[in-house]
Amino acid sequence: MKKFETKIIKVTLPAANGTIDSSSIKMPDGKVIGIGVVVSGNSTQELINLSILNNGNEVLSPSDLSFSKQQPGGGFLNSLRPVDFDGGYEYTVRLSAYTAARPTDVTVQVLFAVVPKNDFTKNC
């Protein structure tokens, strides 16, 4: 089993906004291999896309938050959305709604699973 560490960032999409970028989060050196999200406040089940950017460039294309929710079965890592991008850089999370307004703020906690560089080179 791969050893991994996690980084977490919280992003809130205000009720009156269509798009918001998080503050940047520095990933540890290594490989980001999975993400998971927890969503609060999306009572109307609106489609809200999540994307991940590095210096304004997409490293994870926009897709609905539901694609990044943990899935049942397997171990913790297997329940996450698989991704593959390098750690050691600053990233931002972007939330984009299809409508400019919703009844409440939507808060999303994004968890990144990162295999540290030393463990990645040994186990992969």
Can you walk me through this structure?
The protein has 124 residues and is mainly beta. Helix content is 6%, strand content 52%. The chain contains one helix and nine strands. The chain has one helix spanning 117-123; strands at residues 5-13, 19-21, 25-26, 30-40, 48-54, 57-64, 81-86, 90-97, 106-116. Strands 2, 3, 5, 6 and 8 form a five-stranded antiparallel sheet that branches. A four-stranded antiparallel sheet has the order 1-9-4-7. The chain is globular, with a radius of gyration of 15 Å. The model has no long low-confidence stretch (mean pLDDT 90).
Q: Assess the beta-strand content as a share of residues.
A: over 45%
Distance between the termini: 11 Å
* C-alpha Rg (nearest Å): 15 Å
Q: Which class of secondary structure composition applies to the elements? A: mainly beta
Q: What's the tally of helices? A: 1
Biggest sheet, in brief? 5 strands, antiparallel
**Total strand count, please?**
9
Question: What is the average of the pLDDT values?
Answer: 90
What is the 3D shape? globular
SSE order = EEEEEEEEEH
Give unreliable regions as ranges: none
Query: In percent, how helical is the residue content?
Result: under 10%
Would you summarize the structure shown here?
The protein is mainly beta.
Describe the protein's topology.
Blueprint: E1 5-13, E2 19-21, E3 25-26, E4 30-40, E5 48-54, E6 57-64, E7 81-86, E8 90-97, E9 106-116, H1 117-123
Antiparallel strand pairs: 1-9, 2-8, 3-8, 4-7, 4-9, 5-6, 5-8
